[in-house]
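[recover] target loaded
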C-alpha cells in the first residue's frame, strides 16, 4: 500500500509526482538509484522515497533492486497509458502549439507517441482534415471528430505502444502524400537528428517522414539531453521542432542556427491526463482473452 504524501514535501517544493518524474529523468543516465541518495537529494525521509519508488514500480516504470531502483531492462517498454501521465502540462502545451500550424483541409501524419495523442485531441475541431497515423489511440481520439477523416496504417499490433508497425503500414505511406508530419522522439541531437529505440517504430517513422512535405519533431524539454539507439529523421529533413519553454536555450539557438524553426510553448494550468487510453488497452486485452 502506498503511503500518503508527507505534507512537508509540498513546503520543500516537491510533490510526489514531481519527485517521481525526476527519478525517471535521473535513470536516463544512471544504472541505479538508491533510497538514501534520493532521500538526501529531495530532503525527505527514506520512508517517503520508498513510497515513491513503490508507486513507480507498481506502474511498471522502474524495476526494484535491493535498496533502490534501476531502469527497465533493454527490451522492456513502459506502456502508452503510463507514459501519457508523464510531463502532461508540457505535452499539452506542445500539442496546442503544433495544432496552430495545421490548416483546415490539410493532410497530416501523427505517429503513436503520447505527445501525438495530445495533438490529436487539439485537432478535433479542425475541418476537412485528413490524419494518417499508426497509433490506435491517436485514431481513437479523432474517431468521432466530425471534420476529421482518419486513415490508419495497417500492420502488426505492438500492445505496449498501441501502434501498428510493419510492411503493411509502410506500403500505405509510400503511396501517400502528406502536408505535415508530427513525430515524437526519444532523443535529439544536431548530429543525428531525431532518435528512438524500437526498430519497428523507427522504420514507420522514417516512412512517415518521407511521405511528408514538412516534418516537425514534437517532444518535451526532458528529451533534449537524451540519446537513443536509432536515428529516424536527419536534421536537414526537419522543418521545425515544437517543444516547451524549458528546453535548453543554447541548444534551441543552435538548432535555429542550423535553419530549423524551433517553437517553445509555455505551459498552461495543470490538467489531469485523459483516462480513455487505459480503457482501450483493457478492452484489447479482454478481446485477446476471449479470442
Amino acid at each position: 500500500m502506498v503511503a500518503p504524501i508527507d505534507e512537508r514535501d509540498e513546503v520543500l517544493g516537491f510533490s510526489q509526482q514531481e519527485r517521481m518524474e525526476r527519478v525517471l529523468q535521473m535513470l536516463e543516465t544512471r544504472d541505479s538509484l538508491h533510497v538514501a541518495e534520493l532521500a538526501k537529494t529531495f530532503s525527505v525521509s527514506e520512508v517517503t522515497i520508498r513510497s515513491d519508488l513503490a508507486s513507480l514500480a507498481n506502474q511498471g516504470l522502474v524495476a526494484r533492486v535491493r535498496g533502490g531502483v534501476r531502469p527497465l531492462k533493454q527490451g522492456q517498454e513502459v506502456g502508452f497509458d503510463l507514459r501519457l501521465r508523464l510531463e502532461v502540462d508540457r505535452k499539452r502545451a506542445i500539442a496546442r502549439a503544433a495544432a496552430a500550424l495545421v490548416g483546415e483541409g490539410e493532410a497530416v501524419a501523427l505517429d503513436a507517441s503520447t505527445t501525438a495523442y495530445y495533438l490529436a485531441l487539439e485537432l478535433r475541431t479542425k475541418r476537412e482534415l485528413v490524419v494518417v497515423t499508426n497509433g490506435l489511440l491517436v485514431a481513437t481520439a479523432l474517431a468521432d471528430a466530425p471534420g476529421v477523416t482518419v486513415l490508419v496504417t495497417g500492420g502488426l499490433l505492438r500492445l505496449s505502444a498501441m501502434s501498428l508497425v510493419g510492411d503493411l503500414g509502410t506500403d500505405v505511406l509510400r503511396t501517400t502524400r502528406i502536408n505535415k508530419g508530427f513525430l515524437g522522439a526519444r532523443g535529439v541531437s544536431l548530429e543525428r537528428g531525431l532518435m528512438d529505440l524500437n526498430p519497428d517504430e523507427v522504420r514507420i517513422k522514417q516512412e512517415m517522414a518521407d511521405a511528408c512535405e514538412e516534418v516537425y519533431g514534437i517532444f518535451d524539454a526532458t528529451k533534449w539531453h537524451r540519446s537513443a539507439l536509432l536515428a529516424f529523421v536527419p536534421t536537414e529533413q526537419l522543418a521545425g521542432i515544437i517543444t516547451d519553454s524549458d528546453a535548453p536555450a543554447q541548444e534551441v539557438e543552435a538548432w535555429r542556427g542550423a535553419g530549423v524553426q524551433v517553437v517553445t510553448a509555455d505551459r498552461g494550468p495543470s490538467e489531469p491526463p485523459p483516462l480513455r487510453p487505459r480503457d482501450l488497452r483493457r478492452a484489447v486485452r479482454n478481446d485477446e482473452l476471449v479470442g
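[recover] notes: The first strand starts at residue 33 and ends at 34.
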